[in-house]
Amino acid sequence: MSDALHDLTVAQLAARLKSRDVSADEVARHFLARSQAASDLGAYLALDEEATLAQARAADALLTAGNAPALAGVPIAHKDIFVTRDFATTAGSKMLEAYRSPFDATVVHRLAEAGMVTLGKLNCDEFAMGSGNENSAYGVARNPWDAVRVPGGSSGGSAAAVAGRLAPAATGTDTGGSIRQPASFCGITGIKPTYGRASRYGMVAFASSLDQAGPMARTAEDCALLLSAICGPDPDRDSTSLDVPAEDFTRGLTGDLTGLRIGLPTEFFGGGLNGDVRAAIDGALAELRQLGATVVDISLPRTRMAIPVYYVLAAAEASSNLSRFDGVKFGYRAPDYTDLEDMYKKTRAQGFGDEVQRRIMTGAYVLSHGYYDAYYLQAQKVRRLIAQDFQRAFEQCDVIAGPVAPSVAWGIGAHGDDPLADYLADIYTLPASLAGLPGLSVPAGFGEGGMPVGLQLIGNYLQEGRLLNVAHRLQQATDFHQRRPPGA
Ligand code: GLN
């Protein structure tokens, strides 16, 4: 690995900053310059040099005084779904064009408390609805490994920025796969914690019973550092945040896999999985076996149902959450209208993109009288069964492994006007989301066109440490996470 600042991991940057080898100002300027130069990637929606450098100065003051927190001066960029005081927040939507929050999301606040410096806000699918970052109102983000392909979604800007070395780390959110899938598509590491581990306060809501924040970085060690800062109860602000104390996830990175039982769900290795992805996953599993793990076949029999269940429930929750965007309280309002109802209609028709409108209509439909029992209630019941399937599986294994997505990143525009093509590609990430389980994607190799492939690891509730340890051990034995996209 070269010595350039952008090649350093979060852990390495923190150490260099602590030793005063470099200043936070220098580091921030370096990443800002790279980010500005790489505007073709479409990773950033907002950069504000002044705001970033002010944060860097504050970090330098703490570092000089010798009482700086763990990650002082290390830059991070945030998915534009987290509200921030210093930067506009759009959630990838015209509805929130130039919206300024009066407060920081808890996740943003906690990372700032850890000393991190915000580089800017990152592109994402509108209200985090999508699988390729093609639903952003502000244009596509591109995959640094191949600029004509999607970086994945909805945290596409986050993955592109980290893979393209425009930021050492980024935040993402995962409702049905949006941390794991873009991490896989861009060859980086990302973890979605157990539902409730990270506070949702200040995350623009999509599907509240599923939304979770998590870190995206190049290594599992970096993800452990960031997750330690992010997690912990936030009872006054998010009533669904778990009453589980924050922990130092780096302590669990022992690299010891002895006795680890890895479960492989038969349903994750069926006909829909592309051969190149399968080969990379098999390679990573062989490596883990060599490192001391054993592999057992398990079954998650309702995997197939995860797609309809998720797209009923997520749409239902979205239709309710997004009712707040009515032209009165937040953001966009249609310029011309005749009366109040006309204002609502025009505002929502003009402010929301196609996919968001599709979800709102689907959601309103499945929640409506006469259809509620047939769709919403049924989906809730099957969701419970999916969660039970996992508990049965965890009687036989400690972690579950499989692909993140059936293919490598597809071409921009390849799914055209077919939303189902996007939905179907979520098959392997949705089950853990519906069960509220932690899931991670770690670079496992390369597939078609030299594109990265991620291995998904799913753990039982609160087993983030175990997932990170497996990923960390794999990264000690392989160098997939160190390979760089062309030009980065
Ligand atoms: N692709 C899924 C969707 O469009 C998941 C998105 C997410 O996790 N935010 O809903």
UniProtKB/TrEMBL annotation:
The keyword Nucleotide-binding applies. Pfam families: Amidase (PF01425). It catalyses: L-glutamyl-tRNA(Gln) + L-glutamine + ATP + H2O = L-glutaminyl-tRNA(Gln) + L-glutamate + ADP + phosphate + H(+). Its EC number is 6.3.5.7. It comes from the Bacteria. Residues 26-468 form the Amidase domain. The keyword GTP-binding does not apply. The active site is at K79 (charge relay system), S154 (charge relay system), S178 (acyl-ester intermediate). InterPro entries: Amidase, Amidase_CS, Amidase_dom, AS_sf, GatA. It is an enzyme of class 6 (ligase). Keywords: ATP-binding, Ligase, Nucleotide-binding, Protein biosynthesis. Heterotrimer of A, B and C subunits. Belongs to the amidase family. GatA subfamily. This is Glutamyl-tRNA(Gln) amidotransferase subunit A.
